[in-house]
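ok posting inputs for the zinc ion job
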Amino acid sequence: MAVQPIRLFGDPVLTLAAEPVTTFDKELRVLVKDLTDTMVDAPGVGLAATQIGVSLRVFTYDVDETIGHLVNPVIGLFSEEEQDGEEGCLSFPGLAFPTTRRQRVVASGFNMHGDPVTIEGSALLARCIQHEVDHLDGILFIDRLDPDQRKAAMRAIREAEWSGLTPPAVRSSPHATGGLAV
Ligand code: ZN
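and the output
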C-alpha cells in the first residue's frame, strides 16, 4: 500500500491542467498503484493524479466492483441524455451536491503499459469519467453546479472544518464519503 495524502480544495494543484504522460515507465506504474491504493483506502469511486499532487493525465476508478485506470483520457462521445444525482469529491470531504452529467460517455486513452484502451461508461461510471477528466483539466465539480447550488456549495466549503488548512499538511480525510466521493 502506498496511500498518499489527498489534496483538498484550496490547493492550487487542483485548478491546474495536468500534463500528458509521455513515458510509460515504472514511475507511471507506481503512480497508478498509489492512485488505486489511495482511492480504495478513502474509499472513493475515482481519483485523479492531481488529487495526490501529481500533475499528470491519469485517473483511476472503482465502479461496480471493477477497478481500472486510464492514462491521457479523452472523452470522444457524450450522450445527449443527462443524469441527475448527488456528486461528491474526495477533495471536498463530506460534501455532495446535485450535479448534472451526461448519462453515457466513451473515453479513450491508454493503460499503464501504453496499450490503447476504450472505456464505455453509463450512469455512475460515466459520472466518474466526466468528473475525473474534469480534474485533469483543472475543473472541479463545483464549477458544474447551477448558480444556486454553487452558492450553497461555497457556503458549505467555508464552514467545513478542513477549509483553509495548509494543503500539504492535510492527510486523507477521516470523513465518511458515502460511496459518492470521486
Ligand atoms: Zn474529485
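notes: The pocket of zinc ion is lined by residues 89-91, 131, 135, 182 (CB under 6 Å). Residues 26-41 form the longest helix (16 residues).
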